[in-house]
Each structure stands twice: as C-alpha cells, then as structure tokens.
Amino acid sequence: MAGARAYPWRGLVTAVATEPRTVRNRALGYLREGKVTVLRSATRESGRRPHAVQATVRGHRDTYWVELMPGQGWMSSCGCEGDCPHRAAVQLVTGHPSAAAKAGA
Ligand SMILES: [Zn+2]
C-alpha cells in the first residue's frame, strides 16, 4: 500500500477495493439504507452493550443472519472471509468494536 500513500488521490481508487475502509463504507451503507434489522438484543445489567444480538442484514444478493452468541462471538450466514461488512454493520449499531470502527475508536 506504499503507492496509496505516495499518491493519495489516485491511491484511493485502488485502495477502496482492498482496505478495511471498504468494510466501514459498506457497513455504513447498510445502516444508511436501513438494511440492518436488529431482531433481538440482550444486555446484562452491568453491560454497556448487548452480550447477545440477533439481526439481519439485507445484502446485495441475499439477506444474511448475523448473531452474537454469548461466549462464542459473532456468527453470520453470509460466509464472508476476514472482515465482514454485514457483521460490522450490526456491530456498529449495537456499540461493539468492529472492523468498521474509526481507527483508534
Ligand atoms: Zn458478511
């Protein structure tokens, strides 16, 4: 990604396809377009964010199931490898750290 740094404007175009920023952009897009539906969430009395979440995200091809299972972490039916914009969108809306969070947040 050295090229992206040397040529910020041109680099942006190619970087968009491969950098975490894309996950953030796509996650924010899902939220903006109202494609994220949180079906159920549960928060412990002492918790600041839900420890259990069930949600759906309407993707381009299909509607995916995203779930935070207590003690097991995040699962989703989309089959994304690595950073997943579907999980990231649900993580954003439920206040969980995600690949879509701003750097340092
Ligand atoms: Zn996904």
What does this structure look like?
This protein is of the alpha+beta class and 105 residues long. The protein has one domain. The protein is 33% helix and 24% strand. It contains four helices and four strands. It has helices at residues 2-6, 8-15, 20-32, 85-93, and strands at 36-42, 52-58, 63-69, 73-76. The protein has a four-stranded antiparallel beta sheet, covered by helices on one side. The structure holds zinc ion (ZN). The site of zinc ion (ZN) has 7 residues, from helix 4.
Summary?
This protein has 4 helices and 4 strands.
Which terms would index this structure?
105 residues, alpha+beta, 4-stranded antiparallel sheet, 4 helices, 33% helix, globular, binds zinc ion
Reading side by side through the largest sheet, how are the strands ordered? Answer: 1-2-3-4
Percent of sequence in beta strands: 15-25%
List cofactors, ions and other ligands. zinc ion
Q: Write down the overall mean pLDDT.
A: 84
Q: Determine the fraction of residues in helical runs and give it as a percent range.
A: 25-40%
**SSE-based structural type:** alpha+beta
Shape: globular
Distance between the termini: 22 Å
Low-confidence stretches: none
